[in-house]
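DM from R.C. (forwarded with permission)

"hey, sorry to bug you on a friday — could you get me a structure for this? deadline for the figure draft is monday and I only need the backbone to look sensible"
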Amino acid sequence: MIDSLSLENKLKKNEIANCYIFCGSDEQSIKNVIDIIIKKSIKNDFMDLNYTQLDGLTVNSDNLTNACETLPFMDEKKVVVVYRASFLRDKCDREKEKVYKYMEMYIKKLPKECILIMYYIFENDREKESNKIKKLDKYCQVVKFSKLKGAAFQKKVKEIFDKKNLKIGKVELTLFCNCVENNMDIIQNEVEKLYWYTYGREITSKDIYDVITVKNDNDIFNLVDYLSQRKPEKALDILNELIFKGENVNTILRMIERQFNLLFNIKVGLEKGNTKEELARELRLHPFICENMMKQSRKFQFNQIEKSMELCLETEKNLKSTSVDGKTEMELLIINTARS
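My reply, with the result:
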């Protein structure tokens, strides 16, 4: 098994394997590497004929075989990608186990004209690669996409800015990397926002503070969004992730309280007929963030937000007691809020 940086070095030397299995929590990074392999392996004129995508949730032995066995048209190679290949997880249903057993046997005799790529996404940053793909490491190139850190992370982010022809200094780049979630999907979205916000001029620190969604704010937005959908198990996943990253439970609670307070004020403003621009100015929110929160506020009734704010205050009182477990109190808050 190798990491993504080792794979990129191999691809720069045009060392392309016959079969790949990718895993990690950052799907955008995986997709970027797949694009590189496709462009290096298939002539653009025959892309439609020599590139096949299969859904990992519905793939079976027949369509996998047919896709791989079909000869490339007017080219030396064809590429088959099985995305979200859940059969590569250790725990899956009987049908997916059948697919895995077949694939385990089939990749040993994969046609040399075919490049087969399969990937699955970790459910959180703490998940480890499955035992299944460890077993397959001797038959294909297994690559784990761990999140980049430090200088390697900044270099990758700078490449995204460069592709958009955006000018950003070293200090501003460091600030951006410290503020944004370490996820290429989110980073590309934030760079896109900065592109339109600055449009032709160099990015300043103020631009970054004005435009981007700070990483923990984004987590809290998603946590509250899952509460609006009555999915406490998803909200608990985010809570556990924040705690795992070292965030204090009191800080998390304050952010949740702030989110509900903003949603309440936005909902009041919408009832009065205020526009997005008026709400953004009054609440000191970027228009992009305000628009998303307006959508989120519509998922709640007033009484739900009020009840949620009451539960937050109750939790805050409980946390001040030395006899309670902070994590347990936050879990109860999420479960009770989802039921309110």
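R.C.: lifesaver. Residues 2-145 form a domain with the Rossmann fold fold (CATH 3.40.50.300).
me: no worries. The two ends are 47 Å apart (CA to CA).
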